[in-house]
Amino acid sequence: MNAPVTDAKSSGALLELDGLTRRFGAFTALSAVDLTIRAGEVHCLLGENGAGKSTLCNLVFGMHPPSEGEMRVEGKPYRPVGPRDALAAGIAMVHQHFSLVDEMSVVDNLMLGRVRGILDRRGWARRLDGLAERYGLALAPFARVGDLSIGERQRVEIVKCLMLEPRLLILDEPTAVLLPDEIRSLLGVCRRVAEEGAAVLLVTHKLAEIREAADRATVLRQGQVAATSEAPAREIERLVRAMIRRDLDTLDSAMAATLGVAEAGPAEKPDKPKPAEIPAGPDVLQIDNISQRDADGATRLNGVTLTLRAGEIVGLAGVEGNGQSELGLILAGLRAPDSGRLFLGEQDLTGRKPTAFTQAGIGIVPEDRHRVGAIVDMSVAENIFLNRTGDFTRFGLLRRQAMYDAAAEMMQRFDVRATGPDARFGRLSGGNQQKAVLARELTAPGLRFLLAAQPTRGLDVGAVEAVYALIREAASRGVAVLLISSELDEVLTVAHRIAVIYRGRIVGERPSDPRHRNAIGAMMAGQAAPEEPAISEKAA
Amino acid sequence: MSASSTLLGTGRAPLGLLVPVLAVLTAALAGIALIAMLGVPFRDALESFVDGTIGSPYAISVSLNRSVVYALIGLGFILANRAGLTNVGGEGQIAVGGIAATALALQHGVGALPFGLAFLVPLLGATLAGTAWGALAGVLKARIGTNEVISTLLLSFIAVWLVYWCVQSTALLRQPMTSAATLPESLPVPEATQIPLLTGDAAAPVTAGLLAAIVLAVVVALVLTRSRFGFQLHAVGLNPTAATRAGFSYATTVVTALAIAGAFGGLAGGLMLLGEQYSLRAGFSSGYGYDGLVVGLLSRGSVLGVIAASLLFGFLRSAGISMEMGASIPTALIQVMQGLIILTVAGAAYWLDRRDAGH
Amino acid sequence: MTAALLAVFIGSSIRLAMPLLLAAIGELISERAGVLNMSIEGMMLAGAFGGAVGAWATGSPSLGLLVGLLAALPVALIQAFLTVVLRANQIVTGLGLNILVLGATTLAYREIFGARSRETIPGFPAWTPPLLGDIPVFGEAVFRQVWLVYAAIVVVILAAFVLRQTAIGIALTAAGDDPRTLERAGLSVEALRFGAILMTGMLAALAGTFLSIGDIHTFTEGMTNGAGYLAIAAVIFGNWTVGRTVVACFVFGAATALQFQLPAIGLDVPNALLIMMPYLLAFLAVAGLVGRQTAPRALATPFRR
């Protein structure tokens, strides 16, 4: 795009990106991207994970310099060397991960970097109240941020940006951690901000959000602009095709799930896969009335009871932050529940060590691959045999060569692509990392139960399919699988049976059938499930 | 992770070697400049430098004995550091080792034990005392998450003043007061409890501690590169949660690692006491623990690095003492040089690490 | 203990606590910003040396004070450059600087003073504030102090105010707890930490000059003798807050004063125990026996983008 500067100005261009490129070593994260964002619009930036969305945001916000290309704000060259320059240019950003100091109060967080000299805490508390009225974002000004809920922290982040009266507000996947209600109100705030004349750049990979809020949309694919749309709500299908280079018709429903295509309505195919038959194996895992409080005393799990049978895949659906992480840690043996018991067959595992869990036949694909699932600075081989180093030990000495040979075999079997067993785990793509983790967990001798927590997050399309196949294969040989996911469609696709967790409670259970979508969705949002069967689609 | 990369440190060989060499050269130049400023004839300075380090079998022996202490602290440091722990407590671990060694050596009957037990028993006691001192920090870290830098530092001060207390009070280890001039120190340890000399010749008093250090260096190298325990330390150091999930207990690893570092420190203290000082005095550890920590840090995790740095520091310390006596050059000169080496290498870690991250 | 003895005890506790207090508040500023500044010992020593040399050369303790501040500046600059810009290990840098400063001041002292060592150096006189000095028994014994004592109290109050009530205060807290967030707020972690270390250097230098030209009017080799580490212990025992750090300093000061008072009272407490007590108290604090400790989360961690 060689649009002259004057043209851009006349069309109300606020931010123009011209041939923006960013390389990290040999990897090109963003390649010659042209993009124009106009004042008064909500501009959605779409793309799969790893398509370059976050990199683009970080360049605009001055976190990294571009390798090539130029940025202009209102026609004038814009070359930020840090967030400070971005803020000075009227660009504010809500990051994917919170940037709040937990130890400080809400107003102190708001004032951080914004004021000089003596603090006027009362004055800022009043400003906060004013903003709260304008956008419907209520907050207790003197509460410690660390004590707030996830939704409230998100609100602090947004208020922090709004207080700057920004000309451009960037939101990098802000809805991942929010409840449906909170998402709706957030999108409302976006519209409100745009109506007041500022621009909003909303990064998402959920098509439903585009329908609700977007004026225009740009799709990134492998670091390049794959499509732009002036009327995204009416062009969902084209945008999805651009995102993944495939038609929705041929889209595996599992993949549609990660994209949230089904939620977008028009694209949804009438014949979702039939709910698979629930195998009637013996009971394997019994979660019996487990409760857990966090360090601050807040209840995270509240009497969770669930039984899984051999060969069965149970989906645990829920918006993130409703106790799934805590349950995952308990099932991995990393934390003991405050009350309740955990049985694998007849064996009581409550309060036992992780080793006991592994020996009893529990495999874990944790939601946090980098923190719990693997040691990124060790080799692939060392990670594949992390819990079985004993097999390669003689007289206390580790036989590394034997381990590397065995790992090479495993990598072939599970299609883990790397330069070799000695490659650093952190250098692998997300998909290959996850396959390596699965290789370790699925080959554990005597595996009876597998926990797969958010197993496809951050993976590309091909890897998602591979992960599903591995999970199904495990179930077919009699392993009980608990699939924790915040993507309703993923659970509907893979699981035989679905339990819904909300605020640390199992609030309901349904067979895995698309006709229960609304009922399950309502339960995930904390509303009582509508009367069965709930098949009617509500018009948007 | 090959064996050689651990032996040579994580830095690429050329730069990883160049930096310490440049640091030592810089320090040497600074030392020469200072000697010139002090007005000491350069020939005198050099003469006493050589006299104190390699000029005689005696000088070499004494320097080696000093290096042994540095090496032990450094080895303990890199072992604990493999588990992500920074043991700042060497000084205190030496101090409690010295106290335990003295107390046991002066115990009635210990001096009469056969088969070398006379010195092995106090040495074992010293090692155990150091183990306990190190493990204490480990337990706090594992149970309530106390930063081991802070706890080992404080434990060092406490231990150093414990030595002072021991030699001030006749109820503890102070020799019986016969006059007002009785020095605040313990009785000398019996001859049988002293560490035997390798040469058997007082003119070259290098002790059996050297053998112990060599054996332990090999063991530590083997543990770090080849053993499952070394793997465990590394795993816990890199990612405690994933390591725990894989069955390596975080608490056990942390306590064991700091206990071993403490054991090395205690052993070093015992060797200092029974191999060189022979009676307990206030401040006998005189900074060996802190210098040993620096040795461990400068080595960048490699056993060969520890050996090189401990030899450097051991011979430098001897040089300082000799130059003070022979050429009236204050030992402070050596302190300046040592400080410069530490700062240069510490600052250069930036480039070394950047290369590591980018390979 | 008689009232007169008590008065002397309080007076000397204050006098002994003051350098500690200045250094500890300085250290607190660095640590709140995330820098475990072990070189505080070297900074104090440089300040003490500079103060002594300056006062001796010019005959004016005030100019000595200025020289003392200047002498600590390079130490602080090196610490800041290595740990903030080059992201060197904070502990190694601190220990290295302490050895360097100990060596350098000793060498320089012998060069400058040579045979004249132990010479008395012009120092600040003691001064009794009006009104307070008129209190019977206690007036003179407690309040007759070098004016630096009163200046130190003002400095501490100022520091507490800055940390709690100003923009710099919350920025420092953020630099120590969550530097990434601070950076995203458009502030420079490096600048804040650099500045904090320089501030620590100045306060430590003030503490050092207090030792040499405020208190005993002479310089001895390595005269800080671990006072810097004591200041670090005070910050730890003070749980990284101004209020509790001040209390810790006075407790430590009183423990030191007690060493000299014990013979007068006729109590048989081992001297070593009193010297050890500050470290023991700090250790008990980090061992979780004195409430919950909350160190800044990013303490001693270099900041990487």
From TrEMBL, chain A:
GO terms for molecular function: ATP binding; ATP hydrolysis activity. InterPro entries: AAA+_ATPase, ABC_carbohydrate_import_ATPase, ABC_transporter-like_ATP-bd, ABC_transporter-like_CS, P-loop_NTPase. CDD domains: ABC_Carb_Monos_I (cd03216), ABC_Carb_Monos_II (cd03215). SUPFAM superfamilies: P-loop containing nucleoside triphosphate hydrolases. Residues 15-247, 285-528 form the ABC transporter domain. Keywords: ATP-binding, Nucleotide-binding, Repeat, Sugar transport, Transport. Belongs to the ABC transporter superfamily. This is Sugar ABC transporter ATP-binding protein. It comes from Methylobacterium gnaphalii.
TrEMBL record, chain B:
InterPro entries: ABC_transp_permease. It is found in: Cell membrane. One of its GO terms (molecular function) is transmembrane transporter activity. GO terms for cellular component: plasma membrane. The keyword Cell membrane applies. CDD domains: TM_PBP1_transp_TpRbsC_like (cd06580). It is a multi-pass membrane protein. The chain crosses the membrane at residues 15-38, 58-80, 92-110, 116-140, 152-173, 202-225, 246-273, 293-316, 328-352. Keywords: Cell membrane, Membrane, Transmembrane, Transmembrane helix. This is ABC transporter permease. The keyword Transmembrane applies.
Automatic annotation (TrEMBL), chain C:
The chain crosses the membrane at residues 33-56, 63-85, 91-109, 147-172, 192-214, 226-253, 273-291. One of its GO terms (molecular function) is transmembrane transporter activity. InterPro entries: ABC_transp_permease. The keyword Transmembrane helix applies. One of its GO terms (cellular component) is plasma membrane. Pfam families: BPD_transp_2. Keywords: Cell membrane, Membrane, Transmembrane, Transmembrane helix. It comes from the Bacteria. It is found in: Cell membrane. The keyword Cell membrane applies. It is a multi-pass membrane protein. This is ABC transporter permease. It comes from Methylobacterium gnaphalii.
